[in-house]
Design goal:
Blueprint: E1 4-9, H1 14-25, E2 30-37, E3 45-48, E4 51-54, E5 56-57, E6 68-71, H2 75-87, E7 91-94, H3 110-113, E8 123-125, H4 129-145, E9 147-156, H5 163-177, H6 216-229, E10 235-242, E11 249-257, H7 264-269, E12 277-279, H8 291-294, E13 300-307, E14 314-321, H9 325-342
Parallel strand pairs: 1-2, 1-6, 2-5, 6-7, 7-8, 9-10, 12-13
Antiparallel strand pairs: 3-4, 9-11, 11-14, 13-14
Helix pairs in contact: 1-9, 4-6, 4-9
Bound molecules: adenosine-2'-5'-diphosphate (A2P).
Length: 345
């Protein structure tokens, strides 16, 4: 297998650090790994897998000689450097929303639409964290029974908003317990006009609002799901909520499949033994997925499977996964592994 020169842009961030960990843990065939971030982090030392790495500033020349560049430093940085990286010979795996809906850029969850990778032109988009775990859980169901409608409500961890949001939850929790006034500067949206405490609270806004009344996060889930499944007419709606959990997104998902009369047992059967999916669904032992137990794990956990009482093709599921892993770093590294296997870089 050929050896790959790798760069990680945003290597000091919540997702970037996990990309490095996953590359090392999964023995990705890299010959070098370059850690890139902003000027602020130049010279910082990062130790992972027993190796020492020194962070460099992201500049156009950083991508000379790089074969695969992971981007996880926000959409603006991707827009600034991704095409430059491609010009200099790298294939970019982008974790931001900068290119996801571009028609010529594949949006890939390897278990669902690996074939889309074959058509890449230098940039490959990694979907939104909430989208990835949902489509991974629903793909075996879609394949067997077809999908007509999805209505999802998410319960999303703060790490999806980066390291600063994790710090904010921790400091606000201390302020709350010490009965001090609570300082809110990051959530719901760092660039937004108003900020609300996330500690001991629930915020029904992730990212900014569109004129439709949906948030951009909700629109990402809606549009990305249709693109990944290749189903333009799939009915999808989403409500995205931030909750005071560090890592692990949870989702209450209602689906209508194309076939009536399917039982819960038949639906569950489609998920048994699927790589990357773990069924935790036994009410007699109170077994169901929870973010605290999904944190640090690679799989997508599925439980609380129920038939809708009123719709003959309607079902409910509860799906939990570590948003920094399958929702971001792991999926990106799986895309890179697929590129190496398919020899398409
Ligand atoms: P830095 O630590 O130097 O600011 P998170 O998603 O956890 O908030 O992390 C954001 C990541 O994006 C960090 O690694 C951060 O690096 C990086 N980043 C922010 N601004 C820039 C920039 N101008 N150039 C390159 N990387 C950046």
């Amino acid at each position: 297998m050929s050896k790959v020169n790798v760069a990680i842009v945003g290597a000091t961030g919540a997702v970037g650090t996990k990309i490095l960990e996953k590359l090392l843990e999964r023995n990705f065939p890299s010959s070098s790994i370059k850690l890139l971030a902003s000027k602020r982090s130049v010279g910082n030392e990062i130790v992972a897998g027993g190796q020492q790495f020194i962070v460099e500033e992201t500049v156009p020349e950083s991508f000379d000689g790089v074969d695969i560049a992971f981007f996880s430093a926000g959409g603006n940085i991707s827009k600034m450097f991704a095409e430059e990286a491609v010009k200099r010979g790298a294939v970019v795996i982008d974790n931001t929303s900068a290119f996801r809906m571009s028609e010529t850029i594949p949006l890939v969850v390897p278990e669902v639409n690996l074939d889309a990778l074959r058509e890449h032109k230098g940039i490959i988009a990694n979907p939104n964290c909430s989208t990835i775990q949902m489509v991974a859980a629903l793909e075996p169901i879609r394949e067997k029974f077809g999908l007509n409608r999805i209505i999802v409500s998410t319960y999303q961890a703060v790490s999806g908003a980066g390291v600063e949001a994790i710090d904010e939850l921790e400091s606000q929790s201390k302020q709350f317990e010490n009965r001090e006034s609570i300082d809110a500067k990051i959530l719901p949206s760092a660039g937004g006009e108003r900020h609300y405490p996330i500690a001991y609270n629930v915020i029904p806004q992730i990212d900014s609002f569109d004129s439709s009344g949906y948030t951009l996060e909700e629109l990402k889930m809606i549009n990305e799901t249709k693109k990944i499944f290749g189903l333009k007419d799939l009915k999808v709606s989403a409500t995205c909520i931030r909750i005071p959990v560090v890592s692990g997104h949870s989702e209450s998902i209602y689906i209508e499949i194309d076939k009536e009369g399917v039982t819960v047992e038949e639906l569950r059967e489609t998920l048994v033994g699927v790589p990357g999916i773990v069924i935790q669904d036994d009410i007699t032992t109170q077994s169901y997925p929870m973010p605290l137990f999904a944190e640090g794990k690679d799989e997508v956990f599925v439980g609380r499977l129920r038939k809708d009482p009123d719709h003959p093709a309607g079902f409910h599921l509860w799906v939990v996964s570590d948003n920094l892993l399958k929702g971001a770093a792991l999926n990106s590294v799986q895309i890179a592994e697929s590129l190496v296997e398919l020899k398409t870089f």
